[in-house]
Structures are given as structure tokens and as C-alpha cells.
Records
---
Amino acid sequence: MTATAATWAAIWAVTLLPWVCSAQAAAVRLSAAGTDLGVVGAPAEPADFTVSVDVSGERPQHPFVVARFQNNQPLMLGVDGAWTAWDGDNATLHDAAVTASGHALEYVVPARSLPAPFFPVTFSVGYWSGGEMVFGHFTVTEP
């Protein structure tokens, strides 16, 4: 029996990724030390990830998304949704598109648009607040 993309999305949202934005998940808090958001196996069908971040009491600026691969050639996500090479310098991070809702930021990480990922892939999401970078990361392993 083969699972459809919709089936995988439902499984990920409810079971494997409790921090993924869904009706039952609470938003996660990021930290300057980096919040570990977990490790998951990639589904057979490529999928995007949604991470809801609690920003209560903060003024988030310059949200970012980075993908890191075993080949040590990280990519950053631009506001236009395109992945581009990143030199690893925090000062050169581009803003990523996020959706603000109440006290939360919702990051959509378009993993399906990555150019042939080398597993594992570690995704970092974050922003600047009060002159400090706060972030979290999750790792996706081979299907």
C-alpha cells in the first residue's frame, strides 16, 4: 500500500512533528542557544514544513530560514521563496517570508523546492530580537 502526499502530510502534522502548525500543536519558543525541534525521517513524497513560533513579548525582526547539508554548502530562503547560496555569515542572511498571527510567526519551509538534498538536511528558522539572534533547528533524515 502506497501513501499519498496528503496522507503523509496528515501523518507529519499530527504524529511525527508535534511542533508543526496544526490545530493541536502549540507554537514553539526559540532561543539564542538554539532550540532543538527534533529529527524526522523524510516521507517518500517531498513535503513542505510549517513551524509556528511563539514570539510573545518580543519584537521579531529579519526572520530567516537556512538549510544545511552534509556538503557544507548552506542555502538560505529569500522572501520570494527561492533558495540561494549562503556564505555562513549571519550579517548576510536574507529575510524570509513569514506570516504573523497574534503572538506567533508561521514559517513555511519549502523543502520540496530544494535542489537534490543531501540527507540529512538541517533546517534552521529564526529571527533577530533585541539585537540578539534566536533560532531553532530540525533535521530531516533519509526516507
---
Amino acid sequence: MKPAGLAETAGCLAAGAKAFLLRAEALQGFGTDRDSFLKCFWGPTLAYPLYLIAMVQIDPMLSGNGAVPDFGWIAARTIGYVIAWIYWPVLLEVVCDRVGRPEAWVPLIVALVWTMLVPMLIQIVLILGVGPGSFLFGAPLLAVQIWMLVVHGWLLRQYLSTNLPLTIALVLGDFILSRFLHVIEESIARAAM
């Protein structure tokens, strides 16, 4: 498998943007095979440097005072980033099996990764462009994060045909688990400074 090319990456990101707007036809723009699954993780890999820069920008210990993150801080952020992109696909494999839709796992993960990359990039643009501390930062950031939960549920229903209570439970479970992991990442990053 070779990495996703520029045109393929742009096409999948465009499909992710359409899916982020709940346009069902966008789901046809994602691959459903093993190569598509492996290639979808190139998006978060390419976005990682921007993520790291944004994390420096919003870290009160680093932003504005010219401090440079040390190896421990970078390692904590890197490990947290990798875990954030991997833990949910692993758990969703079990969910797909339990709801009787194991064939939906690869297409769901491909769509989920490309689609969730869009709000991550929007948040990075807000952090780097507007900056923390402004109403122009906080309100749009919160709106994007809330909409991410809606889109996440919509994707689960599209691919797994889950009922509403199960969809809400899965989305909230992912949200709670991601917050928990983020707290751990923050603690490790603080201890490393």
C-alpha cells in the first residue's frame, strides 16, 4: 500500500467536509477496502504538525512567553494524538460485531476518520487564526464541538443502522472516554514540563 496521494487526500477531505454537513451522498466518496482504511490515517498524520503547533498556542505554560516544549511534553501530546485516532476504531470493531454489521466496520472507520478530520482542522484554524480568549474563538469552537457529536451519531446511524438510544450511548461513551484520555494527556504533559 502506498500513501494517499495529494488528489486522493483532497478528494477524501472534500467528501469528509460534505459528510460533516450531513450530506449522505458524500459517503460514496470514501473507499471501503483495506487500502482505503490504511490510507485514511494519512489525513491525521499530515495534520499532526498543525495540531502540535495549535497545542503549543493554547497551552498557558507555553503560549506568549516564548517557552519551547520539551521532549516529555511533545511525547505526551504525540501519544495522546495517536491514541485519540486509534482507540475508537478499535472499540467500534467490537460494536460492529455486536450489532451484526461487521462488514460496515471498514467503511465506517474510513468515513469517520476523514469526516472528523474536518472539524479538527476547523478548530486548528480557529486556534491559530483567532486565538484563545476571544468570543470569536470560544463560541465557534463550542459550536464545532457540539456539531461533531451530531455528525458522529449520524455516521453511526448511516453505517450501522443503530437505534437512537444506542447511538446516543455510543456518542456519549466516546465523548466521555476522549475527555478522560485528554485529562491523562494533560497531566502527563504538565508533569513533563
---
Amino acid sequence: MNMNKKNIIGTVIAFLLVSLALVPVVADEMVDVWMQVYQDASNDSQRNLVIIKIQELRNKDFAPMLLEALADLHVRGLETGTSTEQFDKLTLAKRLIQELGNLQAADAGRQIFTFYRDGKDPDLKSIAAIALGKIRAMDYAGQLARDLADINLIPNLIDPKPQEKVAVGIIQAMESMRADIGFEPVFLASVAWYSQLSGIKKLSAVAVEKMITNYGDSLGQIIGKNPQISVKIRAIEAVQRSTLPNEQKNSIGRTALRVALDAAVGRPENQAEINRLKVISMGLLMSSADKNASTAELFIELVRRDDGSDRTLDDTLKSLTGLGINGSESAVTFLNNQLLDYNERQKAGKNTDRDVRLIRELLASIKRIKSPSSQAVLFRTKFVEQYDTSVLRDVNDALKVYGN
């Protein structure tokens, strides 16, 4: 085609772009007209102008034509021709894929994924991933999730921005797809290497909040299996903020507390992180008033780990409070036995000021539970004359809940 003919077609297309916007046309006729205009375009620069107009119309009837245009573009290749021609083809590919996604063209999945897989431009890959999410092309969720997991691991030290662009697209795709396999890599993106400027950590955190209702148990698996305590902390924090049912929160909270207790053995170097995981887990279980006996056993274990030092005092106090909130039979039995043990120690003059703090917290928990089995224990405690007035006052307050 000589230059004069190309110029004529370009002029005609430019005229149509203006005139069709001004003349009222029936919707079906509009689709036919623009499809013909696109077919008559002599180069990708002109095709881009037509696609811009088609994007404005947002008509699903264009989907077959857009898919055909994308297939043609794939055959012609994005990396052939002059730099200008390559730029025009890349721009056209982005627009076609974006519009197919916007139109939720379900049949476009395979073709879009081809551009995602083979594309070298990170913006194109990102747009393709987003489009796959919009059309819920679930056949490709696994590959997208694996790619995000790989990107999460380590940045390209020379220039990480291309990775960040692709990650943004995949995160949005996973949020749209709500695929099981996508939850963990999206969550891990919120704690990965990405810069604050990229916005990825915030984007993934928001996606997690939206996905967590369906995949909250995945956070429990992350807490149980991921080797990094910092990741476990972020996971339990996400559970804490979520709207998951209390039963599910408590189950995950027990997992996290168990992990913290196991990790604390031997006073490891990351003790501060482990303590944070422990404190958040305990707080979650107490705030939701978990009554499960398994939770009581975890609190009991913490009390038994008390070594008489300031280092373990706070854990023991919180655990005694937790047992009072829990109120299960296991909790009641343990609290009663602990009080009887303290009574014997008090008679022998062995209780310290620190012990008195623990006794008073223990009494507050017994009072909270109001178990009939505790009444006799309280009566016996009332007549341990060696206790100071503060403890005996707490004993009498606890007895009042029984009408005494």
C-alpha cells in the first residue's frame, strides 16, 4: 500500500472518529461500523485510535473482534518492525487485553495468558494478569500464584521495578479470582522485600482483608509452617483484625500460642519476636472469651513455666486472667488446686510479695468463673490467718458471688 493510500485511510478514520461521536447510531450498527473501521485501518497507530473509541463504548459485542485482533497481533509478533511499530503494537496489545478484561470475555483466557507468559514488558504482563483475574480464568490461577511466590522471594538487585509491576497485577488478579492457591503468596507479599513506594505491601494487605473470609484457615497454616516468626506475627495480626467467626479466630490463636510456646524453649535469640507472637495470641484468645479446654491447657502450661523471675511474671498474670475468662472445667480445677497450694505455702511462710500478686489475680479469676466447686476452696482460704488483709478481702469478695 503506497503512502497516499495510507494517508487517505488515516484521514477517513480520523473523520469517522469525530463524526460517529456526533451522529446518533443504533448500538448494533455502531458495533458493525467500528469493527469495519478497525479492519480498514492500515497500521497499528490507526488501530490504537479505533480501540480507544471502542473502549469508551464498553460493549460486550466487541469481544469476538477484540479477541481476533489480539490473535492477529500475536501472529505478527510484538518485537518485529521498527521501534515505532513495536511501540504501537505493544500499546495495542495492552489496550486489547485491558478491554477484554473489562468486558469479562471468558473465552479470552488462553490468548491473554499467552501474552502474560511470553511478554517481556512488565506493564503488559501486569495488565494481562489483571485481565485474567477479571475474567476469572481459574485455569491460570496456579501459575500466577507460583509466579508471585517466586517474585516475593528475592528482588532483582539491579532494578526491582519490573518485578514490582508484575506483582501488582498478580495480586489484583488473585483478589479477583479468590483462588485457594493465591491466598498465601498474596499474604506473603505484604511482608516481602517490596519498597514502600511500590505500594505492594498495602495493596496485598487490603487484598488479604478481602480474601480472608474465605481462606482464614490458610493463615493458620502459615503460622504453623512458615519458618519466620515475623511472618507468623503478621498472620496473627491479620486474624486479629479480621471479621472471621470467633471459633475460627480461636482455633488459629491456639495454633499461634502453641507455636510461640514451642519456639520459646531454650531462650532463642529472637525471644522478643516470640514474645510478641505469644502476647498477641493470648490477647486474641482472651478478647474472644474462648471457652475451649485446649486453650485452658495452653494457659496452664504458661503458668507452670513460671520460674519466679520478673521475666515470666507478666505471662503468668495474663495466663491466670485467661483461665478466668476461659472458665472451662480444666481451668477451674487448675485454679482451685493452685490456690490450695498457695495456702500451704502461706502457712509455711514461703509465699513472697510476688506470689501475693499471683494469688490476688488467681482469686479474681475464680470470682469471675463462679464455679460451685470453688466455694469450698475459698472457705478454706478464708481461714488461712497468715494471709494479709488484701488477700483476705479478695477472698471475701469472691465468696459474695455465692451469697456468702
